[in-house]
Amino acid sequence: MKLYSTNNPALSVDFKEAVFNSLPQDKGLYMPHEIPALEQDFIDNIDSYSLPEIAFKVAKNILQNAMPDEDLKSIIDDAIDFPAPVVKLNDNTYVLELFHGPSLAFKDFGARFMSRIMSHFLEEGEKTLNVLVATSGDTGGAVALGFLGVPNTQVTILYPKGKVSPIQELQLTTNGQNIRAIEIDGTFDDCQALVKQAFVDAELNERFRLTSANSINISRLIPQTFYYFNAYAQLKKEGKSDVIFSVPSGNFGNIGAGLLAWKMGLPVKQFIAATNVNDTVPAFFKSGLYEPKPSIATLSNAMDVGNPSNWVRIMTLFKNELDEVKRVVSAESFTDEQTRVAVQEVFEKFDYVVCPHTAIAWLAVEDYRKVSGDYSSAGVFLSTAHPCKFPDVYEGAIALKVEIPEQVRSLEGKPKQAVEMGADFDVFKSYLLSN
């Protein structure tokens, strides 16, 4: 597998280098030179395969000869050891539950796969791998659990002070061992900027072996394609062939993975990028001007991204032609007030509790149906996090319906371990050099 930088198509690196470097020095993002299509026979019979079988087939297809088949299969069997069920709410409305992993968020797919890929490529005697990750909520918890105890790795998680839920903060700050957390007095965009600046700092790169666990790392993106193929397989068993995916979108890695799956041959009728008021991409669709903006705190905090890194990957998939993107993708944004109403409506209609991110995805698919008149396709909205992570959103009967999983209860009472810091790169760099 060979990859290039979105800022330099002539660049060519192998998968191992892209995994460990995360970000090219020209500040682009790595993308595959070739995205091979899967065999039509596999797509036609995909409903006969399990999730791990689908994951192996898809990963082998895009990674090509990056590692031996038996090693890849072992990594997948170990990393993807939890389900991703499509739950039917009515005849044409489905929710894809992606919160059944250890950290109760869809990020478990990417984080667990990536940590095992990195462990596979690490060679005895090499420098300790320093993993830097910025999180607006769920990424950090998934990465922490994905890398916890992995030999020869040190993970540093940056999160915005006061902008993650209490449970998310517990998942970030109570691990110890090789996991440390930094509480940044700023936004997610500030955290992400610090991480990106670290990757292009000569002194830090000379001293440490730096890599990222954010979705800027291609090894995070690839395993997220698995659940799109698996969802289609489940729907095919139900006799559904026209599928619309509505994706809660913040840094646009999740929908980017869906579009990567589409490029590999997954039959998807429409993707919907559903955002909160951090609407840089929906605004771009309307105006034709891409104007990043400071992020705004919302109920759906994992989507509080004003300058989504992965958007450049999506544009690259479509040769930077916005009109071509629009043939496959639509984009909508919603307010916190609309989100609260949606949580209530989904509960009343389906006796089902959604997290704020999932509520926005449901709103988007409902709006798409009204505008397009398409009520026959299977509308699948992605549920990216367990509702227990957002207790302040629910009250009354909905709050009583939310179950608290055991892995959350086990965190209660554990002491918080986090370093407070301003959004200043010199201070962050000094901390890394001293610790």
Task: Please mark out the parts with pLDDT under 50 across 5 or more consecutive residues, or reply none.
Answer: none
Mean pLDDT: 93
- Widest beta sheet: strand line-up: 4-5-13-10-11-12
Q: Kindly provide the name of the CATH class of the domain at 55-103 and 219-406.
A: Alpha Beta
Shape: globular
At the fold tier of CATH, the topology name of the domain at 55-103 and 219-406 is Rossmann fold
- Give the proportion of residues in helices: 40-55%
- According to DSSP, the number of beta strands is 14
- Rg from alpha-carbon coordinates: 20 Å
- The CATH architecture of the domain at 55-103 and 219-406 can be given as 3-Layer(aba) Sandwich
Q: Whole-Å distance between the termini?
A: 35 Å
State the helix count. 19
Structural class: alpha/beta
Largest sheet: 6 strands, mixed
Content of β-strand: 15-25%
Question: What descriptive keywords fit this protein?
Answer:
14 strands, alpha/beta, Rossmann fold, 6-stranded mixed beta sheet, 5-stranded parallel beta sheet, 18% strand, 435 residues
